[in-house]
Amino acid sequence: MKKIGFIGMGNMAGAIACGIEKSGFLKAGDMIAFDIMDGQLDKVKELGFSIADSEEDVVQQSEMVFIGVKPQVVEKVLQPLKDLLKEKAIISIVLGYDYAKYNEILDASTRHIFVMPNTPALVLKGMSLLEETHSLTKEEFAFTLDMFASIGEVEIVPSHLMGVAGTVSGCGPAFIYMVIEALADGAVKEGMPRSMAYKLAAQTVLGSGAMQLETNIHPGILKDNVCSPGGSTIRGVEALEKGNIRATFISAISAALHYK
């Protein structure tokens, strides 16, 4: 019996699976995976994961089942598994399928929790949101909490905030990659080699985030501390404000959250 079985091995599920193995929380041999696209399994095959023949095979061989398929196929995938999932526990990262939604489609004996992770889990710097309302046992919840803590930070979030919280941490990496790319482009424009520009920009973002988390100082104060009177940084801040950077990021969160 495997500790975790993965149904669906897309980018997010793959980042989690590889991160869990990298962190040492579970060995590759403790996990089994299945995806209808064989190519999606290459990354975990190389690590030594067991590969299942079907979704049914995953459920039968796993203590807990991880659901990482696309939202539009969740019910199609789970319906044939409904009986097999009785008395089992599932962890789902499928957007839109929270505690209430799973109660509608699963047998009452199936325990479940909705988690919203992000792709930096691959490098053990993830931000995972665990829905506060769930039906896991105390031991299963503790295991789930420890597993996601092994690949980054964890926050337990009330159900009504999962949408906006997931937008910040789930969509946010794409927005920050654009910031890294743009900062690097500015440096390249001024003559810096691109590889150096990416390193400087990425490390600056990483260090700035770590400093805010560790000091808990308001980001506006941290910004002010870098801006000398009449200096270069405040002139750069002015250029960003002229480009409506704050309003644009706020709009990005709202646009992503309310997408239908």
From TrEMBL:
Its EC number is 1.5.1.2. NADP(+) binds at I7, G8, M9, G10, N11, M12. Keywords: Amino-acid biosynthesis, Cytoplasm, NADP, Oxidoreductase, Proline biosynthesis. GO terms for biological process: L-proline biosynthetic process. Pfam families: F420_oxidored (PF03807), P5CR_dimer (PF14748). GO terms for cellular component: cytoplasm. GO terms for molecular function: pyrroline-5-carboxylate reductase activity. Catalyzes the reduction of 1-pyrroline-5-carboxylate (PCA) to L-proline. This is Pyrroline-5-carboxylate reductase. It comes from Coprobacillus cateniformis.
